[in-house]
Amino acid sequence: LGRPLDEAGLADFCSRFARLVVDEVVAAPEIFGAEAFLRHWAARLPCFVVSATPEVEMREIVKRRGWSAYFGEVRGAPRSKKENLEILLGRHRLMPGRCLFFGDAESDYRAAQACGVHFLAILPDQQAPLLKVAPEVKWTRDFSEVELG
């Protein structure tokens, strides 16, 4: 910035940055087949968001994408993915072995593993960082490859 930054200035800068990030995520193209998948399954099974994104921002993203009706809860930071997954499993009396967590990060996989939840990675290709640390992970490129049953 090239100038001193007081607390108010830092708070303003962080707020503007957060708005820009949310705007970019909302404008990003959807993973192919995601909305069709949600439309199909959210009417049949409880669906939730578990993210490392701050919860307030994640709720805003879901709302602005028009996906609020698909999710029973949207959970994010400051709690960890594992903590949020445990909360959802308990609150909704879900059996972990009958749940599926979709993700693209090692933290997604580790949270699912720790809670006994099945995991399917949505990754662009075999070079994805997750496969380098956890080559055993089952994965697909997008939701068009996930059967709607």
General description of the model:
- This protein has 149 residues and is α/β, with parallel strands linked by helices.
- The protein has one domain (30-145): Rossmann fold.
- The protein has helices at residues 7-27, 34-42, 55-64, 81-91, 106-115, 129-133, and strands at 48-54, 73-77, 100-103, 118-122, 139-140.
- The strands form two sheets. The protein has a three-stranded parallel sheet, with helices on one face.
- It is globular, with a radius of gyration of 17 Å.
- 17% of the residues are buried.
Chain-wise SSE layout:
Elements: H1 7-27, H2 34-42, E1 48-54, H3 55-64, E2 73-77, H4 81-91, E3 100-103, H5 106-115, E4 118-122, H6 129-133, E5 139-140
Parallel strand pairs: 1-2, 3-4, 4-5
Residue fraction in strands: 15-25%
Low-pLDDT runs: none
Question: Please, what is the average pLDDT?
Answer: 93
Class of secondary structure makeup:
alpha/beta
Question: How many β strands by DSSP?
Answer: 5
Largest sheet entry = 3 strands, parallel
Number of discrete helical segments: 6
Strand order of the largest sheet: 3-4-5
Query: How many structural domains can be distinguished in the coordinates?
Result: 1
CATH class descriptor name: Alpha Beta
- Supply the CATH architecture: 3-Layer(aba) Sandwich
- SSE arrangement, N to C: HHEHEHEHEHE
Q: What distance lies between the first and last C-alpha atoms, to the nearest angstrom?
A: 53 Å
Helix content: 40-55%
Based on CA atoms alone, the radius of gyration comes out at 17 Å
Per the CATH scheme, the topology name is: Rossmann fold
Identify the overall geometry: globular
**CATH homology superfamily:** HAD superfamily/HAD-like
